[in-house]
Design brief:
Blueprint: E1 17-19, E2 22-26, E3 33-35, E4 40-41, E5 51-58, E6 67-72, E7 78-81
Antiparallel strand pairs: 1-2, 2-3, 4-5, 5-6, 6-7
């Protein structure tokens, strides 16, 4: 899994978005633009998009499921999957 995308020029966090079936990152300050390959397959419950970035992922102990927090590339909806207390 790739780390959070950061602009190589401005050093700010970039938010991936879908453009022409490709996930890109674009800096609104300096204009840097590139393809982002750190997305995962996860279906958004709000818009149905099948691409997301992982905001948080934790392994749990024993027989509990892993926990994930996903952000949809298209609409930005956050969703949880797995065990969360």
């Amino acid at each position: 899994m790739e780390r959070t995308p950061i602009c190589p020029n401005c050093r700010i966090i970039l938010h991936p978005k879908e453009e022409n079936d490709t996930v890109i990152i674009e800096c609104k300050i300096c204009g840097f633009k590139g393809e982002y390959k750190g997305w995962v397959e996860h279906t958004c419950s709000k818009c149905g998009c099948d691409k997301a970035i992982v905001l948080f992922h934790a392994m749990t102990k024993g027989d509990e499921d892993a926990t994930g927090l996903f952000k949809c590339i298209r609409c930005g909806h956050n969703s949880r999957e797995g065990f969360m207390s």
